[in-house]
Structure formats: structure tokens, C-alpha cells
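To whoever is covering the structure queue this week,

Two jobs came back overnight. Logging them here so there's a record in the thread.

Job A:
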Amino acid sequence: MPNIKIFAGNSHPELAQRIAQRLGTEPSKVVLKKFANQETCVEIGESVRGEDVYILQSGTGCGEVNDHLMEMLIMIHACKIASAERVTAVIPCYPYARQDKKDKSRAPISAKLVANMLSVAGADHIITMDLHASQIQGFFDIPVDNLYAEPAVLKWIKENIENWRECVIVSPDAGGAKRVVSIADRLNVNFALIHKERAVANEVQRMTLVGDVDNRIAIIVDDLADTCGTVVKAAEKLKEAGAKAVYAVMTHGVFSGPALERVMGSCIEAIVVSNTIPQHEKIAVCPKIQVIDVSSIIGEAIRRTHNGESISYLLKNIPL
């Protein structure tokens, strides 16, 4: 593929390698290091003049979120002032996505701030996956392609759950209802909803189940597994309501704080996440984690963008 360069940040080099492999190329040379005073240093190792540049950096869940964000902004800027034709930021897991509205007095809308920073750095296009709220696309004045892990999730359910036709897809909160209804419709199964009330952030106070899961397999679907407090409590609620088995499917497996211990001590059979965030170390601690590979979806989106083709097909299908 002529005129394409793929640069990887430090957050997820393995995913970048898989994507480059799918495109029949290698990640381009870049040196990322820190000066003694902890400032980020970026050296682009090859010419990008007139090239179509893709910079892959996952935000949340890969260690130092702010360092990785700054690294990406500097890489975008470096490529832009080195006369790259177009710079696309490929952000599988968008940072600060949950700070997307002013939900209390004096609260920042950090997702909008990140959008401004990416635009000012020189990004011409954004490719991301399963944004926490799809309205984040409206924070940008440049094109944003929000890919879905849904086709890969459907494939996993059909291949790994024997009686999937008798399962119930469950949303752990009202915000994820649309996502769950879409998956339930495509599988032609029922869905249920759990209403939760929070006292403080990251701590769930009370849960109410809306729907019937008695003697069925329940599959909890959400976009993000962070501290896993919600998903573990939801699983307990579903078991109390008579569910035969409980699985959890999340696009981004952040697993921060006590998440892995909670999952190991819970009644969840398996928690399935995509590889938008590296999971090797977490799987070693928690064997309940299973990983879906989404590099083919992101790789194909890059190929189609580069060739000026439509990516609508990827929103419902997994590329071959």
C-alpha cells in the first residue's frame, strides 16, 4: 500500500503490529522516550512528506493515561509540521470519554477538551471504537468514525454459548439500553435492564432488575469494565432472579483497582473484552478474562479510509 504510514505509541504496540500485518506493512519507525525532567520526546524516524499517516494510541486503561495522550498529541503535531498529507488519530479506547457532560456544578467536560486538543494538534480524522456516548463525535469539527465491536461480540456469543437462542441480553444501566437492544434484536432474543442508583462515583447503591431471566443464560453487555463493581453486583442480582449462568461482554477492559479480585470472587462464568487495551498481564491474574480480537475491524477501517471507500459495512459485519 503506497503512501501509508502507521505509527504506534507506547500504549498498545501489539495491536499496532496486528493492524499493520493485516495491511501488509510494518509499523513505521518512531522513537518515544522521556527527558530527565519527564517531558515526552518524540522522534519520527522516516519521511512522512505527502503521506497518509495513522497514529495508533489507546487512551484509558494502558497505564499512564495522560502520558499516552501527550505522546499522541506530540506525534500528530510532529507529523503535521513534517508535511504529512493527512494525519488520522486511531484511538481504540477514547480517553476521558466518561467526562462527557456537566452532571454537577463546576464539573469539566473533559472529553470535549481532549477533542479540542486533538484538533489543535493537527489531526484531520479520528477513528475510535465504542465511544462511551456517541455524542462525543459532535465535540469534533473533523470527521470521526466510531466503529462498533458489536459484530465481534455477536460472533463470540454464537460460537461460545451453546444455547444462545435462549439467552437474555442485559444492560447494567439505562445508558447502555440502546446497545443491548441492538444486540438482542440481531440475535432475536429478549433483553433486560438493570436500574442502578449511585451514592458517589464508582460505587453503586441500589439495583432493580426490569425483565425476566429465570432459568436462562444472562449476558451482561456494556462498553467499559473499570472497577467492575457494577457488573459484579448486576451478576449477583441476575443470579438471585434465577439466571442459570451469567456472562459479561465489555468492549474495553480497563480493570482498575480491585476489579480482578472482584471478578474472580464473583458468580460470572467469563468476562469477555476486546483487545483495544492490552490484557496479557490481567489474564495471568484472572483466568475468567477472555479476549476478542478487533484488529481486523480497525485495520479494515484504516484500509477503506486510505482508499476512500465506505466503512458502513464494518458497523454490522466482521471483515474477512
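Job B:
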Amino acid sequence: MLKTVGLSIEGKVYNVTKFLEDHPGGDEVLLSANGKDASDDFEDVGHSSSARAMMDEFYVGDIDTSTIPTKTKYSPPKQPHDEQDKTPDFVIKLLQFLDPLLILGLAFGVHFYTKSSA
């Protein structure tokens, strides 16, 4: 038993179940658009004026636009500002450069001090 195949194009609903076998692009095209807005797909193919005229026989009605959910733009959650980290990047980079030099200088100082007192 064949299910009803319906789709919408430009806000109009069509029952194309009877047209599945006759569709030049094959029934897979219509089945993949079942229950969806096929406006873009329909326009991308570039249907002829006779194909557009044929649509009238499958026309069921218009879509009630009040039942279509509105799309909301995604906005990521706001991150709290971290007030603890106020150190500029320059200071951090300077310390990353100076720390190894200070440790090396300390190592030489300890070595020199222990060597001269022995």
C-alpha cells in the first residue's frame, strides 16, 4: 500500500502520490521531498511551463503560515568576565623569558660561591 506523498512549493501544498510513476526524474525525487518544502529543489531543476501548469491538478491548498515555527538566530551563552586575570600578555612573556635566565644565574652563583669557599 502506497503512502500519500505531499510536498510544498512556494507555500502551496501538493499531493503528488498519483504522479510518482510518471515523474520524469523518478519517484525517488518526490519521495525525498515528502513532507518538506521543495521550493528550492523545484526551482533548481528548472521545470518547464508545462510542468508548472501540471501542478494545478495536484494542488491541495495553501500552508497556514501561522503554524510554521519561527527560526531563532543562535546566540552563544555569554561568558562571565574573568576579573582575576588582569596581567597583560607582555608581562607574562617577559617573565617566561627572564625566569630561565634568573634560574641559570642563581645556579652559577651557587656554583661559584661553593667552589671559592672550599
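Note for Job B: The chain has two domains: 6-62, 84-117.

Please reply-all if you pick these up so we don't duplicate work.
Q.
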